[in-house]
Structures are given as C-alpha cells and as structure tokens.
Amino acid sequence: MKIQCLAMILAGGQGSRLGVLTKSVAKPAVMFGGKYRIIDFPLSNCANSGIKRVGVLTQYRPLELNNYLGTGGAWDLDRHEGGVFILPPYAREKGADWYKGTADAIYQNINFIELSDPEYVLILSGDHIYTMDYSKMLDSHIANGAEATIGVFEVPWDEAPRFGIMNTDESGRITEFEEKPPQPKSNLASMGIYIFNKDFLVRYLEEDAGLENSSHDFGKDIIPKMLADKARMFSYAYEGYWKDVGTIESLWQANMDLLEDEPPIDTDGKWQISSSNLSMPPHYVGKEATVSRAMISEGAQILGSVVGSVVFPGVRVARGSEIESSVVMPFAKIGEGAKVEYAIIASNAVVEPGAVVKGEPGKIAVVAEGEVVKASGAQG
Amino acid sequence: MKNVLGIISLVQDNSQIKEFTAKRPIGAIPIAGRYRLIDFSLSNLVNSGVDNVGIMLPPRSRSLLDHVRSGKDWDLARKRKGLIYLPPTIDGERSCLGNIMSAYDNMDFVNQSEEDYVLLVGGDIVYNMDFTPVYDFLEESGADIAVVYTKARDNKNDSGAVLTVTQGTNVVTDIALKSSVRAGENVGLGIYLMKKSVYADLVTTSYEHGGVDFLRDALMTMGDRYIAVGYEHEGYAVTIGSTMTYYRVSMEMLDPAVWEELFMGERTVYTKLRDKAPVEYKSTAEVSDTLAANGCTIRGKVDHSVLFRGVVVEERAVVKNCIIMQDAVIHAGAQISNAILDKNVVITEDKRLSGAFNYPMIIGKDITI
C-alpha cells in the first residue's frame, strides 16, 4: 500500500537553552511529566493520527535517543511498511556534512523520502508538548488543494513579536510571513509544523541546496521563497495545549501544569501518549510520608514530603526530606532532611542528607545528571 | 542455563484460592499492584538464561494469554526457541487437577528440544531467584533431581510439601503433604530440575498408573528409583496456595525490604508493559504505607494498602488495609477496610465495607456496590 503521509521529526537540536539538561542527550530525549521524553509527544501524535512511517533526524548526542527509540515498538510503529527510521548525517560521495539547517537536514535525506514515496511530507519539531491530530491538518491541506500547510497557534497579542507570524486572508491562505514582527498584523504563530506535497517540497529543497547565501532553514529561507513564488499555502489553526519546552523555565512550568486539578493535557485519555516503559514495581509511599498535588511514577520510594512536584521512576526520597515545586528525574536520590524547592533535579543526581537546593519562581535551580550536592551551603 | 528447558505448570488444584481462579488460571492472578503471579517464574527463568520456555495451560486461559502474548515483554518472542504454549488436554477432572496428563500429552515438545535438562516450576510462587546455582548443585551432587525448598519463617503457612533432608548431603529422604506447615520446616516450592530422561520416565510411568499430580503421583511414588536432593533458597519465597496467603503476601510487599528484594535488585521482574501516566495525588490526598501503580488518581485517604493500575480514590473516601485491583473506583465518602477488590469493582458514594484483618472481605470482578 502506498504511504500517504511520511513524517519527519527534526530531533537534532542541541537545546543549548536547556543548559546541563542537554549535556549528554539531545533535546527531544529530555524527560518530561514523570515518565515521558519530549519526543514521545510527536511520536504518539503520529501513531494516533495514523501515520505509520516516521523519520527522526538526529545529530547532536544521538546515542541515548537512538537507544530509546529502538525500532519504534513502544509507539506501535514497528509495522510492515512503517517504522521509526533514525536518520543521522552520513557520508556521501562528496564528503560528510553536519545538518546545516532544518531544510538542509531534510534535503540530505531526500533519498529516504523518495524511497518511502509518500504523497505528502509532514515536518515536525521535537521540542513541544502537545496532543495534535495531524490527520485533520492533512484533511484540510487536501481540501484546500494546498501545496503547503503551516500549523499555527493563536498566541496572546503581546507575545506575538516573539514568534514567526502568519498573515492570512479569510480563506486561511497565507499572504505574508513575518519573523518576530515588532508590530504584528496577526497573532497566528507558526508552530514549526508543515505539510508539503512531496514533489513540491523536493523541488524547493533542491533549489535551496544550491544557494550559497541561504541558511537552509524552513522559516528563514524555504517558506519565504514559496510565498514569493505565490505558492498555494494555507494555515491550519491548532487549538489546545501547546507548550514550547525549550528553556529551563518553560520545561519546569509545563511540568507544573500537569499538577492542576484538571490537567490541560491528558496523557492517558483517548489520545494515549506512549513511551518506552520500564518494568518497575508500583512506587511506595511510607508511613510518615506526605504527598500532595504530586505526580509520582513507578519504582520510586517516598519516605519524606513531596508537594507540588513531579517525581520520575526510581527516585528515592528519604525520611524528613522536603520537595516542593520541583521536578525530580529518574533514579535521583534526595537524602535525609534535604530540602529541594523550585528546582529540576536531573537523572541519577544526589542531594545529600541535609543539603539544600533552592531556586525561586523565574529562577529555577538545576542539578545536573549525576551531580552530587553536598550539605554545606545552598545552591542557587 | 542454556542447557535447560523451562516448563511453567499452571495446571493444579486451586480449591483454596477459588475466589480468584474462577475466571483465570493461577498464574494470571494480579499481584503487587501491576504484576501477575506468573511474572515471577517467567522472569526468573529468563534471568537465569533459560530461553526455551513452555507454559502448561489449564482451560479458561484467556486472561493469561492476553497477559503473556508473544512473550515479547520477557524477551521470549524469538525466531529460534522462545515461548511456547502447551494447551490443555480436555479429559475431565483428571486433566484439570494436576499436570501429569498435560505433561504426558506435550512430551513431544520436550523430546524435540535440544536441551538436556527440564526445569519444572509452578506459576504461583512469589520470589526473585537465580536458578543457575540449582543446576550447579545438581551436577555436583550426582543426584537425579533437585527439589527447591525454603525454610518456613513462621506458623502462618498453608498446607505444603514438607521435605526431610539428610544433613550434609541434602538428600531428600521423605516428602510429606501437610495441612499446615510449621516454622523451621523445609517447604517445597514446586521447583524441580532433572535430566530430560528422568522427567520423561517420571511423567510416563505416573501417567500409566493413573497419576494426576507431578509431586504427589510421580516424585513421591518413585523415590526408590531416583535420588532427589533438596536445594534451599534463602531469599523471600512464598507459594500462593490460598486466599489468606495471597492477602498476607500482598501486605508483606509494603515492607520496603521485601519490595527491595523482589523488585529493585539486579534481576528485573518483567511484566506486560502498558502505557499509564504516573499517579496523580491531588491536594486533598492523604496517603501512607501504600504501594500505588501508575494510572491511579487519589483525592482521598489511603493507608496500608496496595493500589493497582488505574484505581480512583475520590475525595473523603477512606481506604485501609485493602488490596484494590485494576480500574476499581472508590467514590466520594466511601469507607472500606480489610478488603480485596477484584478488577473493575465500583464502591458508590458513602458506602461502608469492612472485613477483618485475619479474614478479608473479597469483592468479585466487575461488581458495583
């Protein structure tokens, strides 16, 4: 059966704004929500939208991400005619190159696209938390007879100048694209989600690849060129929860959003978010423990107090310790009497007995993977 | 342990635990919040390097098949070897109350396998054990069969097979089926390692003489032909033979030392993997001394209990000394104590239910109260 739509996830980003959290992993492999990784969201969205073949473009620290994705079985993508394909930069006749930009990354994998031979190509980024049915966007793309469709999200007007803004006519056809306009004419921000007709995309990528002064970026080069050529480009408005988790603050905030009484995103609902699960026992909450407004995962042992926090698998919270408004990632250890506030504690980190990690709203403290925080002196 | 074929037997007399086995094989009984009983034996085999495993099924095995499926989650979905189901032979009572008929009928599977040894284990044991030392022990002893046992820690045990072994050589001189086992006695765990030829001879001879159960009608009656040695397993190990034992063992898992030994050591207990979000504790939650599996939402008070996946405890509800299986809902203001709720039970608003600590109330699958 012919593949209708092929998805390509741009997962090569270094994620430098996430600081030590991306010291050893690519941004899409960063943990979120007590058990997930960021890439679980676009992958689950693909699986739930009926997209069976997904290319994941990796480049920066790909090892953990490759290991995590495997053959895609966790998302039920290990199917005939389908599957998750990890696409790192590789050497060709003319030499090896890193991906120079988002468009170049796709360009370097044109042979994969041609091999898959889809009618449409869906381009996704791997750094947002959202649950979106891409099949509806594809329906709209087909109904509009579009050559390109760009996913847009309505942002508050005062924040619009931080985004790439799409100006459209009444039919939703894009008339103008402005990157971070000081005086925006619309508040429809590009989500970095594109559907292209395959041949149309390939043509533009090949053309762009030959341009020396191009930065080979979708937002900066490809989309403006398509618009200049008066291509049929439409916007598709997504309504729902959509969160960029590209910074420490936004990653922390997105975790905190899950602790609301009615969380804005339901990972266990009809739109199941899947992940590569571990075989771990239920977590244990001890006799003197306190847990409130918390999300706690398997294999954790809570003997202290956890309030307003997200706790990942295998975390140990010792007696008399207090965790508040924080995110504690897999297998971290919080020692007896330790205090953690407004912080992100990365995997396998140790907060020793009596130690204090204290951040504040707007200035979240971060303990790096495997880092040991000793009792003397607070860290900010 | 490449040279060992694993067989998990689920065909046995379950009259003491019939509340849970009416609709499922013994190995499919949910335990410890997210597991099924068979996960322990299956994981122990895999972790000991056994990669050819047969599961002897009783009739009505759908829930077990749905749990184990291809064996993928235990890394047993292989091109060569892996997992094989040994379906029941329907022939009235005799084929349901013991495993001899099934063992006899599936003998070609054993004969065709390339392994030289058979490790026969029950699917009703809670333990985390490496079988490799049993193999070495049998080899060194020069005996024909190794029988694994544990020393009873107290007098709270069910009926069981009590082994008498000679000091030093550990040769089994007597096996007695007792209605209650006392502290310090050697209790057989239902784990037997032997050469394939010994297994075939025991099963065939027993079958030909109308035997039903491997232990009672094969091992115990042919002691003069073969030498058995006892291998003592020193870790936590309990055979779930009755509803009371099920309740006691479930509560013992709240002891961090037991939880640690069974689940957090080097040998992972594998189970069917499912996507479930972490537990959501809302602002009104008050929880202590409790195991909670992913997918639960808790707004009420829970103490000294085990909550399986997807359990909902609403505001003002109180749960104490309970085992609550998958997807049960305790509505607002309900109070339950000393109870075992099977899957999908619903306790409606402000209802009160209570069993006794030595005799829990059991609410069957899919019941609304």
Explained architecture:
The complex is a heterodimer of chains A (380) and B (369). By secondary structure, chain A is α/β, with parallel strands linked by helices. Chain A has eight helices and 29 strands. Chain A has a seven-stranded mixed beta sheet, sandwiched between helices. Chain A is elongated. In chain B, strands 1, 4, 5, 6, 8, 9, 10, 11 and 12 form a nine-stranded mixed beta sheet that branches. In chain B, strands 15, 17, 19, 20, 22, 23, 25 and 26 form an eight-stranded parallel beta sheet that branches. A five-stranded parallel beta sheet of chain B has the order 14-16-18-21-24, with no helix packed on it. Chain B starts with a strand and ends in a 6-residue tail after the last strand. In chain B, 52% of the residues are buried. At the A-B interface, strand 14, strand 16 and strand 19 of A face helix 11, strand 14 and strand 15 of B.
Topology:
The complex is a heterodimer of chains A (380) and B (369).
Chain A: E1 5-10, E2 31-32, E3 36-37, H1 40-48, E4 53-57, H2 63-69, E5 83-87, H3 102-107, H4 110-116, E6 120-125, E7 128-130, H5 134-143, E8 148-154, E9 164-168, E10 174-179, E11 188-197, H6 198-209, H7 218-228, E12 233-237, E13 242-244, H8 248-257, E14 283-285, E15 290-292, E16 294-296, E17 301-302, E18 305-307, E19 310-311, E20 316-317, E21 322-324, E22 327-328, E23 333-334, E24 339-341, E25 343-345, E26 350-351, E27 356-358, E28 365-367, E29 372-373
Parallel strand pairs in A: 1-4, 1-6, 4-5, 8-12, 14-17, 15-18, 16-19, 17-20, 18-21, 19-22, 20-23, 21-24, 22-25, 23-26, 24-27, 25-28, 26-29
Antiparallel strand pairs in A: 2-3, 6-11, 7-13, 8-11, 9-10
Chain B: E1 4-9, H1 18-21, E2 30-31, E3 35-36, H2 38-47, E4 52-56, H3 62-68, E5 82-86, H4 93-96, H5 100-105, H6 107-112, E6 117-122, E7 125-127, H7 132-141, E8 145-151, E9 160-165, E10 172-178, E11 186-195, H8 196-208, H9 214-219, E12 228-232, E13 237-239, H10 243-252, H11 256-263, E14 279-281, E15 286-292, E16 297-298, E17 301-307, E18 312-313, E19 318-320, E20 323-324, E21 329-330, E22 335-337, E23 339-341, E24 346-347, E25 352-354, E26 361-363
Parallel strand pairs in B: 1-4, 1-6, 4-5, 8-12, 14-16, 15-17, 16-18, 17-19, 17-20, 18-21, 19-22, 20-23, 21-24, 22-25, 23-26
Antiparallel strand pairs in B: 2-3, 6-11, 7-13, 8-11, 9-10, 9-11
